[in-house]
Amino acid sequence: MTTAMHLSSQLAVNVLDARSLLSAFGVLGVGVVLFAETGLLIGFFLPGDSLLFTAGLLCTGADDRGLKLSLGPLLVAAAVGALAGAQCGYLLGRRAGGSLLARSRSARLHEGAKRAEELLERYGYAKAIVLARFVPVVRTVLNPMAGALRVPVRTFTVWQVAGGLVWSLGLTLAGYALGSSVPNVDRYLLPIVAVIVAVSLIPVASEVYRSHRAAKAKKTEAEAKAKTEEARG
User: Cβ contacts of residue 11 below 8 Å, gap of 6+?
Assistant: First the structure.
């Protein structure tokens, strides 16, 4: 009877809610969710950022319902899920090309694919692969896009590992640090997660701003050069 009730509670988990996922599956769930979000197109809706941060926070015992995770196994699960998922997504894209994405009817997924392709073209492979980790949906579709566009395996692997470790371990440790230093922090979990997600977008926003400034400066230089040549003519 107890086993049946436990199974029922797991089946009733809300996959969009980080605390619900952690309550049902614990550390193992973190690895599985990150693998699905970064390696399988069907996982684009999963809450990777909030899951990592919340899991780190719960390692401090800050949850008022007694849920506590172990930091060591959590860091391992997060890293393995994030890295293995991205590599799997790349290999799927390399073998299946764009056929998997073409079968999807999700407008959000296609928009993410467009942004992923723009990142690769605008910033180059290394910077795009790292930045994509911090953008929901884009981190799901960039990996198969990189495979479909034949990004070199070595280049993709090196930079997805670098970005994956910074993203997965960074957010987890940020949650742990906050939970260790602020009493009853779980009461403010939702606004904190919103802030963390916003902060995670700063690297991308910074790159967009720098790119915009560079393009504007280049345009101004071209116009000045054109005016100079026109005056000479």
Answer: none
